């Protein structure tokens, strides 16, 4: 045995108990009372031992339309590791004139050799041309079995028209893939934005009015109908509204395979942030909503309507955000947060009594693994990858603009006081973060091929 985590309180998706975890060759080989005099020992007395977090929605080294994010695959995955994230799933965005298969090869060349934790990729398709449709089966066989589609950002070349969306859904479903949807009504958002720009009032304070809750709800309703028509399983990303969550709840009750996520910023931040002098910092899509929306999202997490919480990490420094001070259309939307995903959900979820520790594991680790086909990850069990977090539930941490490892020079959560923080992070048996020190290396992470298993997705909804 290479490593033993001793005396910890082990939390899985379905149980929690005192015990040890034995690790060899990057895998969990023993759980319970583990002894091997040759092994390195980490004492986790008084600490929680959790599965490594799977942040299945990140935008690392990403071009957002008007600017490129400030992280690359090393700095981005290093920051994620400090927060207890041991796997990310990023996106391979299909560029004009590029096949979806070529986009995946390009993104892998950008990531391989830099990532310090494991990673995978979603195919982000931007059309339903013959080459894209022909390539879907091979993309799935190559291990990128999830496909993202945008229903908005037509001007940026991302929007999938309804007929093409139906065609893609059918094709992806036929070959065992998963459809991911960014759900906002493009016509509504573009028209409202153009009205604000024409009136010279496209200021951050009015940004939520350009993408209202009905734009999300209408599109979610439409995508649910498309899923019913095609038989496809769909995954709605970053649900931000009470209306959207309620539509998903109804679809699930009717037996449709509709799964969804939300993000910490929609749970913890509200639209009044746009009224602040630096409200431009919070420009993201969808925008921040009202407090009643946040409460509805927490309720939907508790009762299983929302199965995953991801960061939607998109890392811009303040100088790029400031372009939106007088006109929010001049800034690329997005907010960073992969490093805070686990600490925020632990404090405001578990400590606040909104969710249990086992629910935390489901939301951040177990369900992402089940839904997206990461069969070797997501829980603490013999045979799984030794991706683990030792979290000190008594550790105090106040978020500031600069006490993190992301490239952005500000924090949307400045002043938030947290109790409970990762102390040690282990990736495939290697200690990569310990007591605030990074011990990993670029290139340690590897690309993980995924295949979607319908029975695993059904287990999430059970």
How would you sum up this structure, described in words?
This protein is of the alpha/beta class and 462 residues long. The protein is built from 14 helices and 19 strands. Strands 1, 2, 3, 4, 5, 16, 17, 18 and 19 form a 9-stranded mixed beta sheet that branches. α2 (100-111) links the parallel β8 (85-93) and β9 (118-124). α13 (357-372) runs antiparallel to α14 (454-461). The mean pLDDT is 96.
List the helices and strands and how they pair.
Layout: E1 3-11, E2 16-24, E3 27-32, E4 40-43, E5 48-51, E6 53-55, E7 58-59, H1 73-82, E8 85-93, H2 100-111, E9 118-124, H3 130-141, E10 146-150, H4 162-174, E11 178-182, H5 186-198, H6 207-210, H7 213-230, E12 234-236, H8 242-253, E13 258-262, H9 264-268, H10 291-302, E14 308-309, E15 313-314, H11 318-321, H12 341-351, H13 357-372, E16 388-398, E17 417-427, E18 430-434, E19 437-438, H14 454-461
Parallel strand pairs: 1-4, 1-5, 6-8, 7-15, 8-9, 9-10, 10-11, 11-12, 12-13, 13-14
Antiparallel strand pairs: 1-2, 2-3, 5-16, 16-17, 17-18, 18-19
Helix pairs in contact: 7-8, 8-10, 13-14
Low confidence ranges:
none
- Helix percent reads 25-40%
Sum up the overall morphology in one term.
globular
Radius of gyration over all CA atoms, rounded: 21 Å
Terminal residue distance: 36 Å
Question: How much strand?
Answer: 15-25%
**Helix count, DSSP H or I runs of 4 or more residues:** 14
Q: Return the structural class.
A: alpha/beta
What's the multimeric state? single chain
Task: Estimate the mean pLDDT confidence.
Answer: 96
Count the strands?
19
Largest sheet: 9 strands, mixed
